[in-house]
Design brief:
InterPro entries: SET_dom (IPR001214), SET_dom_sf (IPR046341), SETD9 (IPR040415). It comes from Pleuronectes platessa. This is SET domain-containing protein. The strands form five sheets. A four-stranded mixed β-sheet has the order 6-7-5-10, covered by helices on one side. The chain has helices at about 1-15, 25, 50-80, 85-90, 95-105, 150-155, 175-190, and strands at about 35-40, 110-115, 120-130, 135-140, 140-145, 160-165, 170, 215-220, 225-235, 250, 260-265, 270, 275-280, 280-285. By secondary structure, the chain is of the alpha/beta class. The protein is built from seven helices and 14 strands. The protein starts with a helix and ends with a strand. The protein binds S-adenosylmethionine (SAM).
Length: about 280
């Protein structure tokens, strides 16, 4: 009698698609109507991986072009003494340029701002343009831990640990030990001149403007979800020079599987000024 009940409980717990423990445990009962139910794991993807890939390639290629163009323009200006020495790097890292690239390529901009929900801290908003349904709106940055890898220290009081459907964890906290781990793994994986991940999501001005998905707040009965999480494994054909914009890195160098990223996809059209809300609880039957 006891065993089947226990097993049922264990199965329900394991079937939670995404868990931000312990916030989920404390808040699930208040927001039961917001549970997202999916009948099969493979049906959970709102858009095909190829569409996610095309959006990322479009944005990252524009970012790399605008970065190069900034450098060229500034170098020229520098020679004609229009730009004082030392400002070149500053301009090339200009967030306005990156947001322009995003607006041109994807048709919208997103950014962090204080949430519209009381006591929910920071949230993510569409600040310009228009997001059509089915668009890749944001990325969830962080260190990727396989299900069997230890994360105990990093997970203590950490509301940014995201659990994928297969038990892979992504630690998106930009402070403390989580920050140190990300920076160290990112430095380790550098391939000659190529950076294999982007550490700038740890700052207020990420080079990849999509990499703020860890700040998206949970929906409520009054504020339904307008985005959802979707796993995305980086394919072999991903251009090596564009890895520098990926905000994820494997905790272990020996991981023998494609790099796991998590993207947020829009569930409907979203207008400028709207806050993004995801669903922290999804049950896969
Ligand atoms: C992944 S973080 C999201 C970013 C967070 N808003 C911040 O400023 O750090 C998850 C935490 O955000 C807060 N949060 C998310 N959704 C919320 C909601 N609907 N109402 C209140 N707090 C929320 C909770 O504190 C939760 O532990």
């Amino acid at each position: 009698m006891f065993k089947p009940a226990f097993q049922r409980l264990r199965d329900i717990w394991r079937s939670y698609r995404h868990r931000f423990v312990p916030w989920v445990v404390l808040n699930l009962s208040k927001n039961e109507k917001t549970l997202r139910k999916v009948t099969e794991r493979c049906r959970d993807k709102v858009v095909p991986d190829e569409e996610v890939l095309q959006s990322l390639l479009k944005l990252f290629s524009a970012l790399i072009r605008s970065h190069g163009a900034d450098h060229r323009e500034l170098r020229a200006a520098h020679f004609t003494k229009e730009v004082p020495c030392g400002e070149e790097e500053q301009h090339a890292e200009n967030p306005v340029c990156r947001h322009d690239a995003m607006l041109r390529c994807l048709g919208f901009c997103i950014d962090r701002q204080p949430s519209t929900l009381p006591s929910a801290g920071t949230g993510v908003f569409v600040t310009k343009g228009f997001v059509p349904g089915g668009a890749t709106v944001a990325m969830y940055p962080g260190t990727v831990y396989q299900a069997y890898e230890p994360i105990l220290l990093q997970s203590i009081s950490n509301p940014f640990v995201f659990r994928c459907i297969d038990g892979v964890l992504v630690d998106g906290k930009d402070k403390g030990i989580s920050r140190m781990v990300f920076r160290s793994c990112s430095g380790r994986d550098r391939l000659g001149p190529f950076m294999m991940s982007d550490t700038s999501w740890l700052t207020a001005t990420p080079h990849n403007p999509l990499a703020v998905g860890q700040y998206v707040n949970n929906c409520s009965n009054e504020r339904p979800a307008n985005v959802c999480y979707q796993e995305y494994d980086v394919p072999d054909k991903f251009p090596i020079e564009l890895y520098q914009y990926l905000p994820n890195v494997n905790y272990s160098q020996d991981t023998r599987r494609p790099l796991r990223c998590v993207v947020l996809v829009s569930l409907r059209d979203i207008e400028a000024g709207e806050e993004l809300f995801s669903n922290y609880f999804t049950i896969v039957h």
